[in-house]
Amino acid sequence: MTASITGQDNPYIIGVPIDEPEFFFGREDLFRFIKDNLKQNAKVILLHGQRRIGKSSVLLQVHNFVQLEEFLFVFLSLEGKSRKPVSDVLYEIASEILEYLEDEFELQVDGVRIPSKKDLQKEQGLFSEVFLGQIFEVIDGKNLVLLLDEFDVFGEHSQDTASTHLFPYLKSLIDQQKKLFIIPVVGRRLDDMPNLLGLFHEAPNLRIGLLQKPNAERLITKPVQGVLEYQSDAIQAIMELSAGHPYFTQIICFVLFSKAREEERSLITREDVENVVDKAIEIGEVGLAWFYDGLPIPERVVFSAVAEAQQVATGKAELVVEDPLTVLRKYGVIQTKSLVQAGGRLAGWGFVDLLEVSDAKLRSQL
Ligand SMILES: Nc1ncnc2c1ncn2[C@@H]1O[C@H](COP(=O)(O)OP(=O)(O)OP(=O)(O)O)[C@@H](O)[C@H]1O
Ligand SMILES: [Mg+2]
Q: N or C: which end of the chain has fewer CB within 10 A?
């Protein structure tokens, strides 16, 4: 039995991090990884993943899916903080921790004093000695886990900015404070970040990748249960286009929902999916540009070559797409080691694949 789709809100979420657990799908393995490592007292757990893969959403959901009595999770966004002086960033982090404890856990934080930016500039240690000391009292001796959302470490590393000094300081803090843990998430490969790896070389780390098939299927069907039905071939078509990338899956479904509502239909077929590809690409344009810009340069070159090879194959209605490195050779590009490695890495991340032409349409246009 399906209810009428007319007048229903579009339940797919595109672009903003998912903060409602019922709209969040998958990542069970990641939460298990976090739980196991925290239980073994891992003070730092590093997570990493490409643009728009769901990094912020994972951090926002940790407290819903990792249930550990003795741990209290605080989400902090480090966005826009990398060029500020460390003292300013510590001040901001302290204010955000207080706000979070009050809003999310309804803890009484009125009496907690944050050292001024000036004092922190003179003596960084006040953050730990004065501020954290009070926080551990407020949270009644529990462990404090700071979930640190993307720290934009790119850009110039001028002398006093947080980009160079914050993580070394955090490292010394967690060495010092037995009950302090951090889970930083970074938007690129860890081996691009020698700084972090050097500091936390023993830290367990995990990549946030594509959603597994059953979870991507739930993302497609569950938000519209009882309102809109997907034929299994339609689900397959969405999977072929998005490969389980949660953002691209949401975009396709968002467009399908809008169209079904407009036409007052309650069933989605493979043909419907194929008909909305262009619209989905249009809507996702900003995300797609970010996706591309977020790749390291050798990966971008290989990715463009894959797109070119796919376009050529589509034009000739061939089922086999030429090897991107062969395409590059035709343009006179020398096969350097970094290009060969880039190809392997793109495949390893699940971003390129040897697919049939029809499978590759969305990805060829990225
Ligand atoms: N687990 C999930 N369940 C459902 N949708 C998801 C999930 N993860 C990501 N998404 C989709 O991807 C979009 C981007 O998610 P999010 O902002 O968490 O990614 P991000 O990796 O932090 O992105 P950015 O690189 O821009 O910081 C969401 O708006 C949603 O459409
Ligand atoms: Mg994010």
A: N
